[in-house]
Amino acid sequence: MRIGFVGLGRMGIGMAGRLVDAGHTLAVYNRTAQRGEKLRERGAVLAETPEAAARGAEVVFTMLADDPAVEHVVFAADGILAAMDNNAVHVSASTISVSLARRLMAAHARAGQRYVSAPVFGRPDAAAAGRLFVVAGGPDDVVAFLQPLFDALGQRTYRMGADPSNANLVKLSGNFMLFAAIEALAESFALVRKAGVDVAAFKDLLTSSLFNAPVYHTYGDLLVSANDQSAGFTVPLALKDVRLAIAAAESLLVPMPVASVVHDAFVGAMARGYEHRDQSVLGRVAAENAGVKV
User: Does the model's pTM come out above 0.85?
Assistant: First the structure.
């Protein structure tokens, strides 16, 4: 397919690479153009604007940090909305608000275009390896058309109905659960550390018995090593996602008290100057709150 790809951050660069390797023709755009140089060497075309990336494409992916970034590349004068052909599909893989997803769906419908939300679960290494989990929301025929692309990006696609915003709500809910799991690990690790228990042995017990799941293995290892400086997902992005989850919950009158705890934990990490660190820095914050050095 002819694909436009906008956003070559930690996740986007790996995803775009997978599409190139699958044989698709890509025009890629990133605000920092040199991020696309390695993709150009593999056959992609570097576009100077989002509009140029979208022009003539059958599918345009956006993988960007937040709502304002997506709004800009879609609605700006040199954005993708004005450049996309009739029946072309915008696939937003970004973690955005439910309200923006609904706005995008309506705007593309007015322009005679199609829209699908397809946020993903997985860290940058999974993106580069095509091992993401894709959460797709949109009409069945459009998702079916996109399935070969999703197959190149991930190990499984989960369909969440015809309303694209459902996929965004599911993504925010899943991220909230991930953050809550990290916070629970952080607090329990701080407790056993302060008591002098071998935290690696504690983690081994957890992940080989009650909590034998990928999130506990991955983040348990990160919390044991306190290796939070190599950011797969930074604190400001996590804080943004918690805020979006709380906003969605408020709009539906769903109390989420644990989300407020996680929100405050990330605010605490920001206050300590940890904004460039991985979300697993919650382990360091919990230890510091307990007077424990890691």
Answer: yes
